[in-house]
Amino acid sequence: MKGNIALIGFMGAGKTVVGKALAEKLHLKFFELDTIIERKAGKPIPEIFREDGETAFRNLETEAVKDISKQENAAIACGGGVVLNKINIKRLRQNAVIIYLEAIPEIIMKRLMNSGDGRPLLDSADRETRIKELLAQRKPLYEQAADITITIDKYDMNIADLIIKELKASDSIDFQK
Ligand code: S3P
Question: What's the pTM value of the predicted model, to 2 decimals?
């Protein structure tokens, strides 16, 4: 049985909000990989991309996953690109149930078109096309990595409760701790 929950999924899927809610409901510690990376780099993500490049960001991300995988009783909100490196998923899976928050493209699009700032990968003159391209590339990676997939098709769903139900049904996390 695993002691951690890792949330994966595309930018705008709600990993942070859901991760915090899960942590509260299940009495887990909450970690956000992006925040850990920013702390380690001493600067915000757009600056890391701009000054050091995406490869440097991905290296920091892999380091952060390595550190966080040692935690117990944790809800971990991962950045959308965590699935790009297989070692990240391998490390997360050692002690975490991996939950894929699959928000339908309409929801992703709406959220990111309105508030995609601070996300360097969306810096494009044609943000809509960029989002569609990235979604198409990433979808199979999220699907492969997921232990449990939760599809978000409306705004008012209580995702954290839905996840807890699935976790209990699958008997994959230790709720006693
Ligand atoms: C990224 C997603 C971002 C952040 C970085 C790269 C990605 O996190 O890690 O901008 O590659 O999809 P969120 O998914 O929390 O926005």
Answer: 0.95
